[in-house]
Amino acid sequence: MDKSVSKSTQPSGGNGLPTSSSNGRKLNKKLIYLCSIVMAFLFFLGIAAFVFLFLLHKNPKATNKNIANFRVDSILVSRFKLSSSKITASWDIRLSVQNPSTESVLYQTFYTWIQYKQERLTNVTNIAPFQVRGNNWTAENGKLVAKSVQADEKVIKDMATEMANGSVNFNMGLYAGYWIGNEEAKGVWRAVEAHCSDLKIGFSSHDNVGKLIGEPIECILTKTW
Question: What does the UniProt keyword field contain (predicted)?
Answer without folding.
Answer: Membrane, Transmembrane, Transmembrane helix
